[in-house]
């Protein structure tokens, strides 16, 4: 078991490296100018744009930019946000608690749905088994973003009191917090419930 865990961890390194290279190259392939986006205006003097490019390191070759970013990322410095100018790590950390909470609720929902449909399929057989198989196949075939969009549309039409785009922090109101995360958790849990 330990050998399997170590092997998986060793395989994660090249995968993460490949994903970071792909993301870095794709970001550089996007149309537009990062310096102009950072300046926030279209009528900026060329000297100002050159200064921004130099400060952001955009005047260096792409491979040097990537290696510089990778070295900083390994030290925990993910750079600064173009929008808020704050360090990216400080932007991410407050959102990790919400992500953890959403993942926990989605996992509990997936286990409940998966166990219920699995037991119903095993116990009742016949038409119920076929209905569960059809439901599971549908959930596997339809992407999460489509399921999420349908949930938002249906909830917005038939249950407008749910507040489909609102979020309440746990400290402010625990019950409203859980309610605000139910729809996203449902969208995440449906496809995962098939594999439980």
Question: How would you concisely characterize the structure shown here?
Answer:
With 196 residues, this protein is an all-alpha fold. It contains eight helices and no strands.
Characterization of the model:
With 196 residues, the chain is mainly alpha-helical. It has eight helices and no strands. The chain is extended and about 75 Å long. The mean pLDDT is 85.
Bin the strand percentage: under 5%
Radius of gyration: 23 Å
The number of E-state strands comes to 0
Describe the main β-sheet briefly. Answer: none
Between the first and last Cα atoms, what is the distance in angstroms? 21 Å
Percentage of residues assigned to helices: over 70%
Strand/helix succession: HHHHHHHH
Low-confidence stretches: none
Number of helical segments?
8
Structural class: mainly alpha
Mean pLDDT: 85
Rough outline: extended
Descriptive key words:
single chain, 74% helix, 0% strand, mainly alpha
Helices, strands, pairings?
Layout: H1 2-29, H2 34-39, H3 46-56, H4 62-74, H5 88-124, H6 126-141, H7 144-158, H8 174-193
